[in-house]
Amino acid sequence: MKHITIIIVLIVLYIPVTGISADSPDEINITIIYDNYIFQKGTESDWGFSCFIETKEETILFDTGTHGEILKSNAEKLNIDFRTVDIIVLSHIHRDHTGGLMTVLDINNDLSVYYPYSFPQEFNKNILLKDAVPVAVKEPLQINDNIYLTGEIKGPVNEQSLILNTAKGLIIIAGCSHPGIVKIVKKAKEIVDNNIYLVLGGFHLMNHSEAEVQNIAEEFKKMGVEKCGATHCTGDQAIGVFKDEFGDDYIPMGVGKTISID
């Protein structure tokens, strides 16, 4: 059934959630379809980020990369059908995370697009022109039993992140982490009081010293982060630090990588 084309602004008061719902998803698959790095041969790398998330509750596209044609091509090579997407979550306004949106909406507009409240009004209008539903998110938002948004976190660029509450703990997915990845993880923990199983995405640490990145990796450990997957704008040196710190619990990223959580 086609959604009603209205602009929705959500300002949500929340009570932190403890543990997991009885209906926690049995399995989650997260596939990287846009990234600076390649994991599966035959796909194309480019500056940007997007991942395709399959849960029992929803199918989510988190960010849409820079170029729609690359996003679409990688999805086809990975046997990903955008017609199955229920919701799109955009982390922040930069084009390397929003550039492929209209390409996806040309394929499937029977969905809602969740984006930070501070996006310009023109962005809302463009989504409405595609006959999809824009949802501006300011405060933490629970989408359903086990899927949450951090809400807009203030920073050099305002940004939101996605939280999946699973039987193994929280999975926190960040686009570029402009407000700071530690700040994002702490915010997610405030919203859903569960252990932190996995943090992945762009951590925006290219211009940080090795010592600064080491401190962040150690802070992850103090917060109880079990696994880590850093990519996109994290920077090669910083990725190396996380690999060293997490060892076997570091998850290599790149286009075509699928992370399955039972």
Written overview of the protein:
This protein is an alpha/beta fold and 262 residues long. The chain has one domain (8-261): Ribonuclease Z/Hydroxyacylglutathione hydrolase-like (Metallo-beta-lactamase, Chain A). The chain has seven helices and 16 strands. The protein has an eight-stranded mixed sheet with strand order 1-8-7-6-5-4-3-16. Strands 9-10-11-12-14-15 form a six-stranded mixed sheet. A two-stranded parallel ribbon has the order 2-13. A hairpin with a 4-residue loop joins strand 4 and strand 5 (59-62). Helix 1 (68-77) packs across helix 3 and helix 6 (210-222) runs parallel beside helix 7 (236-246).
Oligomer: single chain
Overall geometry comes to globular
Could you name the CATH homologous superfamily? Ribonuclease Z/Hydroxyacylglutathione hydrolase-like
**Helix and strand pattern:** EEEEEHEHHEHEEEEEHEEHEHE
Q: Uncertain spans, ≥5 residues at pLDDT below 50?
A: 1-25
Q: Number of helix segments?
A: 7
Question: How many strand elements?
Answer: 16
CATH architectural arrangement: 4-Layer Sandwich
Strand line-up across the major sheet: 1-8-7-6-5-4-3-16
End-to-end Cα distance, whole Å, is 31 Å
The amount of beta strand, in percent, is 25-35%
**How much helical structure, as a percent, in the residues?**
10-25%
Round the Cα radius of gyration to an integer and report it. 17 Å
Task: Please tell me the overall pLDDT.
Answer: 91
User: What is the class in the CATH system?
Assistant: Alpha Beta
Structural class: alpha/beta
Number of domains: 1
